[in-house]
Each structure stands twice: as structure tokens, then as C-alpha cells.
Amino acid sequence: MVTGGASGIGEATTRSLVAQGGRVVIADIQEELAMALVAELGDSVRFHKMDVTKEQEIVAAIDLAMTEFGQLDGMVNNAGIIGAIGSIMDTSAEAYDFTMSILSRGVFLGIKHAGRAMKPNGSGAIVSLASTAGIKGAEGPHVYTMAKHGVVGLTKSAASEFSAFGVRVNAVAPGGTVTPMTSALTDNDVELITSNIAAGSPLGIACMPQDVANGILFLLSEEARYITGHTLVIDAGLTTGGIAPPFYSQDAEIMLHAGQRRNGSDRTAG
Q: What CATH superfamily classification does 2-262 receive?
């Protein structure tokens, strides 16, 4: 199951899983995009409209995967938003709560109920989306940074619990990636966001959704059978030297304008 599996990193992950013979439940709030993907990919894919902040909807999506495909082997907690943007002094409690409900609570619930489904089989792999913002400070908006640090921590603690019944729990931490979510910061100017991300990359290239999906598929696979509690950083070496993409700066004009447009309330899959 892939939350936010209809676009961006989630879509790339869905496509890659199907290409390798997997069967996938796309759990996403974006119904039109998801149904188009189901129509394209065929019988290997199911769609369940789901809001990751609502526990019973997560339970229903996992139950669908088990009913349709027999069991749940992999869970990707991908759905996300940028959320509250700007100075911490200007961030409302409401914007904080909304952002955390998706980026933190949604991952917590996904791990909780995927573990419930996988435990009887004594196997399974869970991968959650963290971020370089969860590895170091000054890499993203405050609430986003807080939530992604939480994903890294929860990955370790859940891995410790779930190892007793053979379920692995890992995360990926990409740097800036060219997705619909980040493109929204430039009024959907994909060329501009791509050049901005490349300019901040130590390798001088932009991270694309498939780059992150490749890491996710590795952690889901048997090739990673001895890896749990780990956060795989996918950032072209960004976190080794403190180079920050210009659009991540709290004071960058592009982020401030995005905050004015979105006001921390627009929900976009990762």
C-alpha cells in the first residue's frame, strides 16, 4: 500500500512496484489522479480514497489490501504536505495542528496498522517518508522540520518493537525533489523548481521522484532483509556539508510567497 500514491514520489513508487510484479493499493485523497493511474496500470492496482489523518480510513485501506491481495507485504507512508510556512513567531496553532496531523499523525497511524496486519505473517516491510529536514535544522519550514525529525525517531522505536515478529521499519530522507508539491512553490513552473533544486545540490542535479522510489523499493525488498530502523538519506550529499537549496531558506522570497498563497492549508500528496 502506498499513501499519496497517485502523484510525485508516491506515483513513481506505485509504478515501480507494479513494474516489478507487485500489487498495490493506492491510498490517496486525490481521486481523479488515482483513478487515471488505476486505468493505466490495470488489475494490479486498487484505489481507496483516504485521508491519512483519519484512523478508520487507514484501517479500511489496509483491510482492502488484505481482502484483494491476501496479505500486506509492504507499506509506504508517503502522503504529505509542506504545510505551515514562515517564521515560527507567525505560525498559528491551527496551522501547526494541520501540518502535524498529516506529516506526523498520518505516519504514526500507518505504521501502527501496517504492523497489525503484518504481525500474523511474521514478515513485512514499512517505509516512511522523512526528509533531510529530519536530519538537520535549517532545511525546511519549522513544523515540517519538527514532523520529519519525528518520523526518523519513530522509525527507530517502531523497528525495535516490530523486529520481534519479523517486520522491518525504515525511512527515506530525500532532499528537495521535483514533485507537484514542490512545483506548487513556483506556480507549477517545473523548469524553475528543477533548476533551483539542482543549484542547491552538491552533485549539481535535481532529485526526481524515481530517485526516491528506487530507495524505497530497495528498503522494501529482500535485498534489505538485514536493515531495519534505518533512515536512508537520498540527497546528493547535501547533509554532509551544509549546502542549502535557495528555496528552502526561511527568508527566501519564493517560500514567503508560497506561504501567503497556501496559508498552511493546501493539502498536496508527496
A: NAD(P)-binding Rossmann-like Domain (3.40.50.720)
